[in-house]
Amino acid sequence: MVLMEYPLLLLIGIPLGGALVTVLVPAEYKRLGRGGAITFSLASLIFGSWLWPLFGGADSASMPLVEYYSWIAPLGIAVHLGLDGIGLIFVCATGILVAIVLAAEGLGTKGFYTLLLVLHAAFNGAFMALDLFFFICCVVVAGGSLFFLMGIWGGQQGWAAANRFALIAIVGQLCLAGAALYMGKTAQAATGHLGFSLAAWDGVLLPASTHIWLALLMTLGFIAMIPMFPLHTWLSEVCAFAPARIAALVVGLWPALGLWGFVRFGLPFLPKATLDIQNPLGLLAVFGMVYGGLVGLVHGDLSRRLAYNGMVMANITVLGLCKVDLGLGIQGSVLLMVGSSLALGGLLLMVGAIRRRLAVDRIERLGGLALSMPLLAGGWFCASLILLGMPGTPGFVGLWSLLLGSRSVVSVDGIGLILCLTLVAASLARTFYQVMLGEGRASRGAIADLNGREFVVVLVLFLVSLGIGLTPRPLLKRVETTAMYAAAKSNFGIEEDDGPGKTGSKEKRPE
Amino acid sequence: MGYLGICGTLLVLSLVLEAWDVGNAEIFWGGMFVRDAATGFFEVFVLVLVVLTLFAALAWGPQVPDATGEAYLLIMMVGLGMMLVGGAADLLMVFLGLELMSLALYALPLGFSRSALAHEVGLKSIGPGIIASGLGGYGLVLVYGATGSTSLTVSIGQVQSLNLWMAGNALLLVWLGTKMALVPFHTSVSDIQQGISTGFSTLLNIGPKAAGFWVALRIWGSSAEMIGERWAGVLWMGAVLGMTLGNLLALNQRDLKRLLAYVGVAQTGYWMVGWCAGSQAGYTAVLFNLIVYALAVCGAFGVVLACPERDGEQHYRGFGRRHPVWGAGLACCLWTLAGLPPTAGFSGRFYLFFAAFEAGQIWLAVLGLVNSAVSAYICLNVLARLYARPEDGTERAILSREAFALVFLATAGCLGLALWPAPLMEVVGAAAAVFL
């Protein structure tokens, strides 16, 4: 079949085609619209899983699938796609979360389903982008879809959350676009060809003086997504005011995009600057972890408390990029990110279930839910353990890799990591006690427990997490090849003088 | 009458396309007129703009019972003036074309508006316009005195008095700056836009800007080395002030027509970035952006035509929820105007900044990028209102076939150029090469 010759394009095309089909479904056939959207989303997930055997073999390349399509030829912008082990894992995670979000609640409008499928396609595109401008395009489309999803289907404050999210996303993408412009120009001066992909920048030397500025621009672009201090403020707003299922998507996938951007674009091109900024970045991550951990411990809103716990876990993944053993650090970060995405997604979906029944987010007005909602309490408990990285969960493998990659346990990041995990554990335990076990509100009367659909959604997330946690080897194999490649690759050297960029020898990474 | 105008314009368009020859330039009418790749390109641009404006006028017509055929005639007169400007090889022909265009544009708000602001708008457009024309005419005389020629192809060797020549050029810049709504000549633009009937807004927003920029590139594009060094600071300031002020003023506008007017001021600033670059890449970027801007503005005004009005302002809160297709059209056009990917606005904006980067104008590119972020925020603000929960109200949307055709054509153009910009970039590049 001709289409199968373009597997990466299909990974974008399936959800995008689904969006077109959903638009054409008459508005009154809501069930059909949702069924179609879930089908296309699952088809993309299944197709992604079908590519699984191509990755992680002993003789497999770091990027077995690459496709190139010219887009804006005069400007050197191309749809240059490449799927590696980490990208594949995030593509599959996207498929799982989108399908679950589509199935999680009652019927929505066709606009909702269309935007979710566009979002799915944009995330898939971003996780496969080899061209920085195509990556920015996908991120902007994903951000735009999320902006509408939060605003239109959010509550009264939905647009406020969407605006905050969009503003910070714009700043981040602007920084990335600036960095891309400069790198494209330098590559053109060196090779005579304008381009923004990995291939176009391969082996081009950068002036030493601009190296650090480029690294800062890229770092700002990515930390706005992760989110790190001081560009973290959107996270709690989104969790508090956006629809819970959209918040689950944002918290689950947006930080993954930032982390992935660092691995694909930040590390390979700016090795020297990466070394220079490793310590400040690590300190910023530790600060973000401590800040998020403390606020998460005491905040009075259930959704915001989860948001700050999510911020801690996302900042911990950044520590993986600041390790002496970068390959091991990246492995740990990816595993931890997958685990926290699934766990936070599940927790936020359960927050949505609570909101639908009680329309309450303040913890002081909740309490004793375990009595009337035992399934919810059980699901919450399991998801909390997954988020915390208990043995048998993906987070455990990730945290273990991170600790192995550290200089020593007695270092700022090592101590910060252990301290913040303690804070998150305390926050989750306190939340569980206050919300599930605390004093019940007698005036509330009986509350319905999770219904069949909600229970299945939580169960699927739990089983996937458990599956990865108990048998992490297949995932680790796929991450390992890519992580080692990213750690070893240092295509962008540094010129000692400030002369124009030109091709030349590559700088060796210090051992 | 309107449909007759559309048919006639399409007929002329087919003739222009048939006669489009990108070979050697031909000069005729005693050196007054030139026919080259650039002329053909601009003529096609003007004719398409006239067709889209006629659609807008047809959509607006039923709202005004006394709308008559003269309005369509005036629209086509604007087109004629712009076409004369497009092929002008002499300052006298430029003057003739620009003033023919301006006179028709002065008459439109005065003769065909139901707004109480019609007379104020007329005064605000005629007053500064006539003063600027006077200054432009005087500048023309000074240039003639300094060089002994009114030809646009004057070389530095022909300049006998440099100061006189520079003074003449400065006055010409004021004249063209008023047409282009270049800061600081932008002050009455928003009032005029608010007061003029929406049926003519597309033409008023795009026509003078396009013609002004075209003339500026024709006059100074090839003489960048002559004026570039002396005027670099002026052009730089024009670009920065245009982008920044336009965006800042648009930030808090609730009226869509005023907002689009200030977005237009910001666009002029962006185009100035390409002019500052002074290279073929810069001019190509300017022309590409011109087309994208024209399409996006036409689409946006198509939706404004359909929006119900309350107290003289468009009541578009929740309009996107009530009419999703129209809302999507406006969203697409605003996304394009903001220069966000993956629209054609992004390709155009990127080309501009890259040209500035290439020309060593790094700070200009950086300021342009920052302003693009503000543009994006403005766009998102409007979209938030467009899709907010609708307020109660009895106003009804005016969903005409003509307005829909306008929105459909413009949106299709924006999306088409986003997906396949390369063919147009080639054509535009050939036209831009003529300026050098």
Q: What is the N-to-C order of secondary-structure elements of chain B (H for helix, E for strand)? A: HEEHHHHHHHHHHEEHHHHHH
Largest interface: A-B, 32 and 33 residues
Rg calculated over all Cα atoms of chain A: 22 Å
Low-confidence runs of at least 5 consecutive residues of chain A = 490-511
Mean pLDDT of chain B: 84
Strand order of the largest sheet of chain B: 1-2
Q: Write the element-wise H/E pattern of chain A from the N-terminal end onward.
A: HHEEHHHHHEHHHHHHHHHHHHE
Between the first and last Cα atoms of chain A, what is the distance in angstroms?
48 Å
How would the global form of chain A be characterised? globular
Strand content of chain A: under 5%
Secondary-structure class of chain A: mainly alpha
> How can the largest sheet of chain A be summarized?
2 strands, antiparallel
Q: Can you count the helices of chain B?
A: 17
What is the rounded Rg of chain B?
Answer: 20 Å
Q: How many DSSP helices of chain A? A: 19
Count of extended strands of chain A: 4
- Helical fraction of chain A equals over 70%
Largest sheet of chain A, order of strands side by side?
Answer: 1-2
Helicity of chain B, as a percent range: over 70%
